[in-house]
Amino acid sequence: MSVAADALPVFHRARRRVTQDGLPSLIIGFFLRSRFSRAGRLIVHGGMPFPSVDNKGGRIELGNVGLFNGVRFECWLDASIRVGDGTYLNSGTEIVAAQSVTIGRDCKIARDVIIMDTDQHALPGQALQVAPVIIEDRVWIGARAIVLKGVRIGHDSVVAAGAVVTRDVPPRTIVGGVPARILGSTSSQPGPNA
To answer: In angstroms, what CA-CA distances link 51 with 5, 67, 74?
Structure first.
């Protein structure tokens, strides 16, 4: 096979990406990659303000992800933030890691969501509280939800808009409210005649 024939599939994939995501989104994502410890293909939508990165000496690793305007990453000394392939973070989403925040593959994080593994300051007479946050694969988090320290959200779960998640969420579960409580299940169980 010739070099020109080998380049043809690459050209078609590149053209499809430009058509699908738009050249400005791909260019901004390309230049933003240098702000992360490791990053796949970043697609940045929505214009200004561009996503911001406040890395105080931690490690931020992104797969092939979509970022919208106003997304903010804050990573403290020796902390880590990891976001898996196929996930997108919508406008105004903020992720703060004093220790570790991990977001799996193919997650959908809506506008103005806050995910943090710390209270960010100690209460009088107490030490600073920090505990890792883990969001497994294919989780949907609704607008203005808050995910607090020490929470694990199981795969294929849904967090309703405005929920405050303070406890673990089992896989395939729908939660909502303040504090978030179980509302239902995302798994559809076929009946005996199905």
So the answer is: 38, 7, 11
Query: Does residue 49 have a cis peptide bond before it, meaning omega lies within 30 degrees of 0?
Result: yes
106 has pLDDT over 80: yes
Nearest to 102 by CA among 59, 142, 66, 143: 59
CA distance 114 to 109: 10
Sequence-ordered list of residues with C-beta below 8 angstroms from that of 71, at least 6 positions apart, any chain: 51, 52, 89, 90, 91, 92, 93, 94
Only one residue has tokens 């702000």, namely 35
Determine contact, residues 169/154, Cβ cutoff 8 Å. Answer: yes
Closest CA to 89 of 136, 35, 46, 33: 46
Is 44 inside a domain boundary?
yes
125 pLDDT above the threshold of 60:
yes
* Angle formed by the axes of helices 3-21 and 23-32, nearest 10°: 100
Residue 190 covered by a domain: no
Confidence of residue 190 (pLDDT cuts 50, 70, 90): very low
Q: pTM score, two decimals? A: 0.82
Q: Which CATH number belongs to the domain containing residue 87 in this structure? A: 2.160.10.10
